[in-house]
Amino acid sequence: MHLALEQFEALLEKVQAANPTADVARIRHAFTLAATAHGTQLRKDGTPFVTHPVAAAMITVEMGLDEDSIIAALLHDSLEDTALTYDEIVKEFGTSVAVIVEGVTKLTRVQYTSKEEEQMENLRKMLMAMARDIRVILIKLADRLHNMRTMNYQVGKKQQEKASETMQIYAPIAHRLGMQRIKWELEDLAFYYLDRAAYDAIVRDLDKKRESLDTFMSDMQWKMTTRLSEHDIDSTVYGRIKHIYSIYRKMYTQKRTFEEVFDLCAFRVIVGNIADCYNVLGHIHDMYTPVPGRFKDYISTPKPNMYQSLHTTVLGEEGIPFEVQIRTWEMHHTAEYGIAAHWKYKTPGTDGKTEDKGDEERFAWVRRLLESQQEAGDAQEFFHDLRIDMFADEVFVFTPRGDVINLPAKSTPIDFAYSIHSAVGNRMTGARVNGRIVPFDHALQNGDIVEVITTGATHGPSRDWLKIVRSSEARNKIRQWFKKEKRDENIQHGKSAFESEMKRLGLSMDAITRSEVQTQILKRLSFGSLDDAYAAIGYGGLSAQKAAGKVRDELIHLAKPGKSLVDRINQTQQRPTTKAVRGIIVEGVDNCLIKFSRCCSPVPGDNVVGFITRGHGVSVHRRDCVNYLNATAKPEELGRWIDVAWADTGKETYQTNLTITAKDREGLVLDIATALTTMKVRVRSLNAREINGKAVAFISLEVSDIKELQNAINKLSGISGVIDVNRNSV
Ligand code: MN
Prior knowledge:
The structure is a single chain. The protein is of the alpha+beta class. The protein contains 30 helices and 21 strands. Strand 14 (about 610) and strand 15 form a beta hairpin. Helix 3 crosses helix 9, helix 4 (about 65-75) packs across helix 7 and helix 23 (about 485-505) packs across helix 25. The longest helix is centred in the N-terminal third of the chain and has 35 residues, at about 195-230. The radius of gyration is 39 Å and the shape is elongated. Residues about 345-390 and about 560-575 have low confidence and may be disordered. Manganese (II) ion binds near residues 52, 76, 77 and 143.
């Protein structure tokens, strides 16, 4: 225990150096609690277990994380391995710490087996999604880093498992988060266990070259430092040998031997401000010949993971190329610690609390940064990954075999079943999540292990499932089943859905019973029989809304006569004995009372039809009027519809109505009124009111024909904010 205490005092020292206002007593309390909870547990190397959380906490301090993170790191294994409870952590350190500790614990429980790359990508996303608070991921990385550093005490099989998990899951996550320093160390440690021979070979080769590399690096360092200080640029220059795994990857991907990898070392020049970065670049390009095409300005265009620097490759004196990275201290910190650097520069809240600050605020700056660089390489991909964390529109669950299945958020066991196979969904009778039976509409959580309970027989899905499922895959597969298996039921369901949709449109079902009408309608719907169409609606292949809309269109189309009454009159050379009343000629009737129906207020140019009313003469409707379309279905009234036509008088004006829908804004009504007065139309009334946040104006106006009306509609549509101008037809 003495060892752990000593280690902890070193941690406190570091915390205080980084943040003099840190609550040392609170951190010490966390250590005492962790030490007590882990008690006499030992690590594989024989040291007290608590040395591990202290070491992980030390890494979080190096990352620059906040006090809550340090405390959470100290407690990160206590929920899983000791008697300490979530509530106790809440009581002692607040919800924020408890939530982080719980998050890390959950990630620790996730089971891995070696998988193909696509599965790995899902696993990485799942971890990010599960973490919610990015600090959970950062502490998990610290935890993993310390475990990898002490992996030599584990048995070989465990080493292999942890190393491949580190290489495939944790190093890429560190990279995404811009934490190069941790990424490199994780990669080198994992590489060491995964391919010891290759690792050793590179180390051996490097050792052979070590002396000449060191000489080269200190020579270059001296030359660059001297030059820069001569020009009054305050800089820190250093050379470093590239990390082992990156050399290996270069050899592997470019099929080179170690001897053929030239750029084994790279230089960094760190300066105080951005202007000096470009000054330094100028001096270096003056001293050495730049290699064409190798200059990269990540200062003006940062990498998606926030990395900023100038990169250039130049030819050294012996013609050996080497890379120089130029950056400010702040950029340097971001390059080393990535997303974690955010906490470094955040001033602690005055009340000492940070738990009120939601993820939104914490991520806001990351999002801004990402949005500003959408065009940069894998920015989209990175943004997508982070989005899962922020907006959680996906959920990742496991099959009992350990495969990761990616579903839309709030997906149910039904979605899961159909994503495995439609046969699994069609045989599903229930589901277990994490070993417990759950209802069909149970919303799956990240990391759940889902098991579908099936019967041997295919009994098929329930129609209600269509309302429960979240994924289109499940929805389609369920529809497929109904399409194939349940024709009678589909017809029944489809018919009632279609009927209520027709009703909604104000159309009666009788409208389509006449055989010649039905033939045309079926043609329009592309079905052989009404039952076929109903069946399609029933299983969801055709929407009832769409079908009813097409029927309506077809009825309007059929209502248009091939030739107008006027044409027929002219054709037969018959003297028009009928006299126009109010501009309307009624077939075979003189001087009858004419009125224009209010439901569709027709104007000359509209296709019209007359209805013989009881005692009030002929009422004129548009042929696309819903009332007419419905009425044609009533056989007993068919005889009362007669052909009418417009006489070309050009003297009368006709009243009609328009409804304008617009964005509610000041001066809208005035603009409408002004537009109308500049036209020849006479406005009878103009009323406007707000409906559902939009301005709706009802206008009654007089026009001489459809042309004039169309002009008015065009003009009104052009008014700023107007969404729709519509002729009332009801
Ligand atoms: Mn741990």
